[in-house]
Amino acid sequence: MAVNAKKVAVYGLVVFVLYVIITDPAKAADYVQIAFEGISDAAKSIGDFFTWLADGAK
User: Fold this and answer.
1) Residue 20: how many CB atoms within 10 A of its CB?
2) Domains of the chain: total
3) Is the overall model pTM greater than 0.85, yes or no?
4) CB count in 10 Å sphere of residue 52
5) Residue-level pLDDT at 57
6) What's the CA gap between 51 and 22, in Å, rounded?
7) Cα separation of 29 and 57, whole Å?
8) Hey, how many other C-beta atoms are within 10 angstroms of the C-beta on 31?
9) Structural domain range at position 31
10) In whole angstroms, what is the distance from residue 13 CA to residue 29 CA?
């Protein structure tokens, strides 16, 4: 039962993403840019944390 719910959720998400891309490509590009900026900021923060740890957590 849970597997079917998961499949429905994934298919629904895919349909929504395709709908957004088809109806408003510029807005979809903005969403992708925001997502990549968030991932980049998170990776930089993790790098800064491990650098801090390697420096003796000072």
Assistant:
1) 13
2) 1
3) no
4) 11
5) 81
6) 43
7) 39
8) 13
9) 2-54
10) 17
Do 20 and 31 form a contact (C-beta atoms < 8 A)?
yes
Calpha distance 32→26 (Å, rounded) = 10
Q: Find tokens 């930089």 and name the residue.
A: 44
Check: CB of residue 27 under 8 Å from CB of residue 20. yes
DSSP 1-57: -HHHHHHHHHHHHHHHHHHHHHH-HHHHHHHHHHHHHHHHHHHHHHHHHHHHHHTT-
pLDDT tens profile 4-47: 888 999 999 999 989 988 999 998 899 889 999 999 999 999 99
Amino acid (1-letter code) at residue 21:
I
Mean pLDDT of 50-55: 94
Collect all residues with Cβ–Cβ distance below 8 Å to 58 and sequence separation of at least 6.
52
